[in-house]
Hints:
With about 500 residues, this protein is an alpha/beta fold. The protein has helices at about 10-20, 25-55, 65-70, 80-85, 95-110, 125-135, 150-165, 175-185, 205-215, 230-240, 305-315, 335-345, 410-425, 445-450, 455-460, 470-500; strands at about 190-195, 220-225, 250, 270-275, 315-325, 350-355, 370-375, 390-395, 400, 405-410, 440. The chain has three domains: about 10-150, N6 adenine-specific DNA methyltransferase, N-terminal domain (Ferritin, Up-down Bundle); about 170-460, Vaccinia Virus protein VP39 (Rossmann fold), CATH 3.40.50; about 470-505, no CATH class. The strands form two sheets. Strands 3-2-1-4-5-7-6-8-11 form a nine-stranded mixed β-sheet. A two-stranded antiparallel ribbon has the order 9-10. The longest helix has about 30 residues, at about 470-500. About 40% of the residues are buried.
Amino acid sequence: xxxxxxxxxxxxxxxxxxxxxxxxxxxxxxxxxxxxxxxxxxxxxxxxxxxxxxxxxxxxxxxxxxxxxxxxxxxxxxxxxxxxxxxxxxxxxxxxxxxxxxxxxxxxxxxxxxxxxxxxxxxxxxxxxxxxxxxxxxxxxxxxxxxxxxxxxxxxxxxxxxxxxxxxxxxxxxxxxxxxxxxxxxxxxxxxxxxxxxxxxxxxxxxxxxxxxxxxxxxxxxxxxxxxxxxxxxxxxxxxxxxxxxxxxxxxxxxxxxxxxxxxxxxxxxxxxxxxxxxxxxxxxxxxxxxxxxxxxxxxxxxxxxxxxxxxxxxxxxxxxxxxxxxxxxxxxxxxxxxxxxxxxxxxxxxxxxxxxxxxxxxxxxxxxxxxxxxxxxxxxxxxxxxxxxxxxxxxxxxxxxxxxxxxxxxxxxxxxxxxxxxxxxxxxxxxxxxxxxxxxxxxxxxxxxxxxxxxxxxxxxxxxxxxxxxxxxxxxxxxxxxxxxxxxxxxxxxxxxxxxxxxxxx
Length: 507
């Protein structure tokens, strides 16, 4: 097969071909096998691009480590380069060759220490299928001068497909791109410290990078901080950042954010997060006197308001946060949650609430909400005074179903949500309430609703466009249709009774 590059749809072609090789391996296991190999192919391709440039220059610098480090290129030893792996794909020892390659790369590149997967030599890994997978990946050029984000495209696509394949477990490491993009477009992280205390595979950081590049900003103006509890997901994040040349402090290893906060002293300009929904076993009973609970002790049986307060604790005086939470957080009054929500509102931290459509996530079909928090809602150069004012957006009718189980927000949906927020927030904005979609509400009105933040309570129901058909005519048509359905229902009931009677179960 000829080597391919960034053809339209090639990610899907690669996925289908690779997935045929999965066999009996679980999606959660196969994920690390495939992504590890793709990562190895990428850094080898990038290394060889530079290597060939140096060879062409003819000055003998192609084996000089500093030539690569100066351009943020990982040093790949000879026995770890893809050509060596490819040439040994049919060997019975191919698993060991790959593990050894990963060890060599970690040894030569300190930022990858304890990051790369070394599970290829295990007896349960089918070496024939592994060789076929290497042959397949060998057909793809993952780094060229023209296509710098090719691996990013493959990686993002594969993460989504793996999340889909894993179902509930997949949501632990992957937030759908359209959800991440909505948050990033709303809070606009141009420069400063960006923090995600439950960073999964790093999607929030990647989308922030894209936002800065699209708006002609400087990536050097962003400082990334994060933390992840799951060990293998932490490795995914490290690799996801590495393939994009992003430097981020996500700790030396995986850690529990609540019980071992790796960034206790970090105050962030921007916080972006999708905490796991409604976690009940987060160990809250051991943290009752924690300094982070400035608005009330969160219930031991649900971590939603612990996450909210943790993030508020890490916000700078002008900091902004965009957080995904289960809809129950908008109205729950159990175990002190209502009191905490009231205190957050009375302190004027809540800027905007967005009700999202259902079926956006791979891990759950339930609808979620976006919380935009802001420590300073007073007027400044770009933003108008929004003290004691909250914007509610009901976006439940946006998006399209891409299959029977999943919905995606289109770019125009994302822009509609973000633009509505910006028109409301910005000094020169031209915001107007739209019945059924958005409404700007004073805190006094929220108090009247007992501090419940469900957007549907405030935006109302969209006006239905009159179709010109008289009411009596509509009722006649509907009652006629209903009468026909009743007749069909009785006929079906009689048929079922007759069939059951025929086998001795009449009633």
